[in-house]
Specification:
With 242 residues, the chain is an alpha/beta fold. It has a single domain (43-240), classed as 3-Layer(aba) Sandwich (Rossmann fold). It is 33% helix and 23% strand. The strands form two sheets. A seven-stranded mixed sheet has the order 5-4-3-6-7-9-8, sandwiched between helices. Helix 7 (161-171) crosses helix 9 (208-218).
Length: 242
């Protein structure tokens, strides 16, 4: 019988606390910010600015990732996909939690793929990690491959969230799980910014009910939502029907 591991994510990566998540205000709410026709560097990092953004995101997302991954069980032999893997730090954490499994990471940004491969170069050499450039709406994997799919700070940028959710459901095994983790959603802390963000960005600003509906319409059951209201954090876990 496979053993299950609950990782103490606060010990998994010791990063200095450089900010208090409870004090963060979305930059798009600052007066004078205008919508761009190009994807933002957060949405699709590129060039030297993109490399800087990836390093920054690796630090900034550490705490919400640690918090979110506590809401899902990872087994030692799990095959895992991290969608929107960015700089690859979450991939490394997942590989540590599943030492006898394998972790795949995808990102549509060439800069992110390069950074994730560099971060995980030793794990890639061991055959424990693979990083691919791909879109969530067209995953380059066969049906029913993964036990777990993670998506940290990414789903609100997907061009077609419903298509991405259906693709994830396709590549999950029956009984496999998807977890979405975000440090921003249309909840008590950030609801007042939702209209402005919709107006000036392509970001999908969903509330809890919309997240539940998104999972249900894609074929997930046993949908569990956890909120850290003071921080404005959200995790949603769903299971693919058997």
């Amino acid at each position: 019988m496979e053993s299950e591991r609950r990782i103490d994510w606060t010990r998994a990566q010791s990063l200095p606390r450089r900010y208090d998540a409870r004090d963060i205000v979305p930059i798009i709410t600052i007066p004078g910010i205008k919508r761009s026709s190009q994807p933002s560097q957060c949405q699709k990092p590129r060039g030297w600015i993109g490399r800087f953004v990836l390093r920054s995101m690796n630090r900034r997302h550490a705490r919400v990732t640690q918090w979110g991954l506590q809401h899902v069980t990872i087994r030692e032999n799990d095959t895992i996909l991290d969608v929107g893997c960015g700089g690859g730090v979450t991939v490394a954490k997942l590989a540590m939690a599943a030492p006898h499994g394998k972790v795949y990471g995808i990102d549509h940004s060439e800069a992110s793929v390069a950074a994730a491969r560099e971060t995980n170069r030793s794990l890639i050499a061991q055959g424990r990690v693979t990083i691919d450039q791909a879109s969530v709406s067209a995953l380059p994997y066969p049906d029913s491959l993964f036990d777990l799919v993670t998506a940290v700070e990414t789903h609100f940028w997907w061009g077609d969230i419903a298509a991405g959710m259906h693709e994830i459901c396709r590549v999950l095994k029956a009984g496999g799980r998807l977890i979405l983790i975000a440090e921003f959603y249309n909840g008590p802390k950030y609801a007042k910014y939702a209209d402005r963000i919709r107006k000036f960005t392509s970001m999908a600003v969903l509330d809890v009910a919309q997240h539940r509906a998104l999972f249900g319409e894609a074929g997930f059951t046993d949908i569990r939502v956890t909120e850290d209201v003071p921080a404005g954090w959200l995790s949603v876990v769903g299971t693919k029907s058997r």
